[in-house]
Hints:
821 residues; alpha+beta; Zincin-like; Neutral Protease, domain 2; Immunoglobulin-like; 4 domains; eight-stranded mixed sheet; five-stranded mixed sheet; globular; metal-binding; peptide binding; zinc
Amino acid sequence: MIAIKIILLLFLLHQSVKSEDNEKAKYRLNGNLIPSKYEIELTVMDNFGSKGQFYGNVKIHFNTTVETSEITLHSDKLKFEPTNIQISFDPPQNSIAVSNVNFNTTLQMVTIKTQAPLSLNNSYVLSVNNYEGILDLDMSGFYRSSYKNAQGESEWIAVTQFQPSSARRAFPCFDEPQYKAKFDIIMNHPENYHAVSNAEIKSIDGSAKLKKTTFKTSPIMSTYVVAFAVTKFAGMTASINNIKHTIWSSIETIRDSQYALSISPKLLKVMENFTNVPYTISGLTKLDQFSIPDFSAGAMENWGMVTYRETAVLWNPYEYSTQNKERVGTVVAHELSHMLFGNLVTTKWWSSTWLNEGFATFFEYFSLAEIEKDWELDLQFILEEHQPVLISDCLEKAKPLTNPDVFTSGDVSAMFGTTTYSKGGSVIRMMSLFLGEKTFYAGLNAYLEDRKFNYSVPEDLFSKIQEKVDSSNHLPEKLSVIMNSWTEKHGFPMITVKKSDNDLILSQTQFFTNVTPPTKWYIPVTYTTSDEKKFSDLKARIWMLPNEPETIISNGWKSQTNWIILNIGVSAFVRVNYDDTLWTGLQQALKKEHFDGITPINRAQIVDDAMNLARASIITYERAFNVISFLQKDTDYYPWYSAFRTFAYLRRRIDRESPLGKILDKYIQRMTGALYKSVDFSNNRVRHVDMLKKVLTLTWACQLGVSDCVSQSQTLFNNLMSNNKVIDPNLRSVVYCTAVRSTNKNDNWEYLWKKLEGSKMASESVTIISALGCTKNADILRRYLNESIKENGVIRRQDGQSVFKAVISGSPQGVTIGLNF
Length: 821
């Protein structure tokens, strides 16, 4: 009887799992049909700004992989009747009758049933004629947006944002990344507008009331990188290396596109030098880049027609900060990296989105570093990508890079987060370092050539790089085995180092998260000691293996050795903890002159590791604060960037008006004394990283109430209000926020609000939006939040979340007000 019950229970469990799998599978296309080409004709009437409509026809050429009587594809918010649908053989022969059409709005799919089955391995054409679509205002699909021209009148544009799954809002399609095809696109639009798409213009016919722009056939690509726009924008063009580069923006802002236009050709050339794969492999001879007034993402890598927020592509030295310039450079580099990683070779499904976004994040720093050589982007990568994602990736809710549990639109959207971008880029950087530059780039070339115009999975990447690995790489296992330990499970290891006589004993555990069974990794270990002080060689000296409880560095400690540092250059995606003796050695070394030769980036690593180990209760805060006490003498950007992030965490969790909160703020003020003296409010041009340091330091000093900082900010702001004296763009964020925060009067806030109402520059608007959240006046904060959701208000749709963020981060009371709102 017991045996029968067990068998019955196992059967029910199996059926339950099977039912759950079927439930998830319904969100995916079944692979029975493979598209090869789309013919799309869309019409935008001259009243599209007020009506918000467009009209379309589409022909989809596809092949069958099974015999079937069903055609299932994606369609969302498109209106058409079964009578609008036609199916025929390809090339055209007899038509195939439709028996039934079923729309599933939840799955955003339409299923067309045919009276006779479609035969195996045959070619067909599905036509959907005279359908209607919505040009919404929600910055998704084919949508509309507006801006003010020089006369203060509204000008409308229609533009696309399809990633990850909104092409289906513009035309019925197989809207998953693996279903790649060619696209022939025709745009009918008002005669005083012009149209742009992925491919070059083939012809323009202006004989009718509507102008007809026909484009050449696109490369083979996924639906999510299809793009088109109808605008009155102006263009600035440069033709270099047989590629026509054009930046498009409003006539009022086009002058600010020069920097983006100057670096775009260089970035394409850098990517070609890295991978030996040119942009022109696409068959495209042009690259259009659009500055969009309302844009939900930072930018979008549509092949041959990249779209951006204005702040991500526009810059000039008189009104925009150094940080703005870096943002433009890195975002353009990110998107142009996608021309190869994402467009030419595309992740098969969003479960491994890091194959697209991880590489783009990696190259946004390391390709731009070849152009802006004094920006130290290789080190900035560690501060801005590597260290922040260590904080989120140790949480139990974190997901692995390669996540098999991705089905719904919510699942897909969740993949576009810090894990995919920042951890993806960090793990790729780690791989590049332990492989060496030559092997890494030879492997990428092999991967791109093998999978061009196709989709890929992680094993495709690892196997092609493996072909280029030789004995000099000294890998402990196949590359796929090593890398799967980093991509298929969330989290990362903490290496603990203990001294035992002359040996150093290394062990690994998963940082912070309690997982059963514990995850173990293949870890490339770099290190140096006080005897060597070699911080430049970032190739692994030893490997820690998942099946070994300990790794021993024999005779690693000499009689004259005072300290050891693991993970030099922050080369591996790990944290490092030391025993008491080794922590004390580092603590003493960092107090010596020139920090005993320990580099700024490894000082940043020590700060970040020590404070986060204390946060996880692995070491005490007393130990951590003792270790970072060297900061009193440190005036370098990198250790302080890491320190301020850890201080921000503590300040968010301690009431600033409490005794402990006041003690913490006084401690940070005391620690920053030398740092504050190393900067000033002058407009002197300084090295790029020094300007970043100046802004960071002054932001914190004024936030902590350093009287000199507050006073100088108020003076600059008063001169702006009274005498219209221009403030250095680099200092505006500090001065505006301080002026609003340091007074109970509303005058400063109202002045900035008026300035926002009249602002014509996106970067200035962003700075003001952030500063307005710095007020401590609860009534104004509530008013500000309400302004953010007004239809046709001062705050643009894309900036609503920025207002909320400004309020909850601007002051302690802002959190409660924001959450209540």
